[in-house]
Amino acid sequence: MSRTSGLSASERVIIGLLTFFLIIAFTLELYWIVYNDSLVARADHHLFARLFQIYGDADRAYFDRITPMAIGLEQINVFVTQIVNVWLIWAIVQRVYYRHVLQLLVGSYLTYSVVLYFWAAHVTGYPDMRYQSPYTFFLFYAPNLPWLLGYAYMSLDSVRHLCARLRRDPGAA
């Protein structure tokens, strides 16, 4: 019997989310890191560049007004966060004792980063939004929701498990 056959539904959902995030990181986001300086020129003939052109109506920092901050954040996401995501998948499958602590850290960090991205844009009046309309607000928020909701779910799952463990063994704290 394989280790994955004994995984709970929640664990399978989390592994599925992490796999989705890994695939996006090593395709779309890696493409952006490599070609961010030529997206405008590539938009007519490269699918990923075209997708960034569309998203650029909502946040030009990811298309034609790219900032060093955006580059740095995406590099951390692709080259650091994904290593931690693979580590978390391994910890879930291997049932490592610190799995929920790691999951809570990763989930909290990524949930916070998406909330910070949304909040910073909101309090500054969405300066990188080409124009403000229901369409551009949808474009800004909807593609980022899987990260917000997925990592928030992971955080809550770990909080639930860790609190249950503390209720069973109050001396563990």
Automatic annotation (TrEMBL):
InterPro entries (UniProt xref): EBP, EXPERA
Domain of life: Bacteria
Domain EXPERA: 10-155
Membrane topology category: Multi-pass membrane protein
Subcellular location: Membrane
Transmembrane among keywords: yes
Name of the protein this chain belongs to: Emopamil-binding family protein
PANTHER family: 3-BETA-HYDROXYSTEROID-DELTA(8),DELTA(7)-ISOMERASE, STEROL ISOMERASE
Organism: Nannocystis pusilla
Keywords: Isomerase, Lipid biosynthesis, Lipid metabolism, Membrane, Steroid biosynthesis, Steroid metabolism, Sterol biosynthesis, Sterol metabolism, Transmembrane, Transmembrane helix
